[in-house]
């Protein structure tokens, strides 16, 4: 475990500004999940709650979990004045240790969770076990190539992964891989200039 990526790290980061993220849902979540029949969703590393609120607007029953109580308090405030066809339960969890209930969710989404590999890989496997039969696992991350492109990205050994590697870690007889690619989209470099960045996108459906 790398201590700097624990609860105190994230509380400090969220306390440093009024809003860390844009308030908009992540684009690959919208691209992959739009039109999917709503059910039970687990949003892991929910932050300030934009993805969870988008899912609840689509009718999903969302369990939203994060390291940071500061982020969760902000998410609750943002959602308190809104009415959703679905619902959101905000939960504080240590993602380095927490095991979600097995086979319980129709969608498990983890967007841009960049932990050291020794923490991230076991977490992703625990998340996979929480997907119900017929449910979807959606994992999205920054591409390591974004650093060379000039994007502002976390620095550190082992923080990046490829969608293909995540797909290879799932048992072939239990999963159907729907998407495993580095998907381009527009972004900005550190000076505000337009560049092309890539999201590593893995979406898989559990068969058994």
Automatic annotation (TrEMBL):
GO molecular function, one term: methyltransferase activity
Tagged with keyword Methyltransferase: yes
Keywords associated with the record: Methyltransferase, Transferase
Location of the Methyltransferase domain: 42-135
Superkingdom of origin: Bacteria
InterPro entries: Methyltransf_25, SAM-dependent_MTases_sf
A GO BP annotation: methylation
Pfam families for this protein: Methyltransf_25 (PF13649)
Protein name: SAM-dependent methyltransferase
């Amino acid at each position: 475990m790398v201590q700097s990526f624990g609860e105190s790290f994230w509380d400090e980061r969220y306390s440093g500004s009024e809003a860390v993220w844009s308030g908009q849902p992540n684009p690959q979540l919208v691209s992959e999940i739009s039109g999917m029949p709503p059910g039970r969703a687990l949003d892991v590393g929910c932050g300030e709650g934009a993805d969870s609120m988008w899912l609840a607007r689509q009718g999903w029953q969302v369990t939203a979990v994060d390291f940071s109580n500061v982020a969760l308090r902000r998410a609750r405030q943002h959602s308190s004045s809104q009415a959703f066809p679905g619902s959101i339960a905000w939960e504080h969890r240590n993602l380095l240790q927490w095991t979600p209930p097995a086979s319980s969710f129709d969608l498990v989404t983890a967007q841009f969770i960049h932990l050291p590999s020794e923490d991230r890989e076991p977490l992703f496997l625990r998340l996979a076990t929480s997907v119900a039969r017929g449910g979807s696992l959606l994992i999205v991350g920054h591409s390591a190539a974004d650093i060379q492109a000039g994007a502002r990205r976390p620095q550190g050994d082992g923080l990046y992964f490829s969608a293909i590697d995540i797909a290879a870690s799932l048992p072939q007889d239990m999963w159907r891989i729907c998407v495993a690619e580095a998907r381009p989209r527009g972004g900005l470099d550190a000076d505000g200039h337009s560049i092309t960045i890539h999201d590593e996108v893995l979406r898989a459906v559990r068969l058994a």
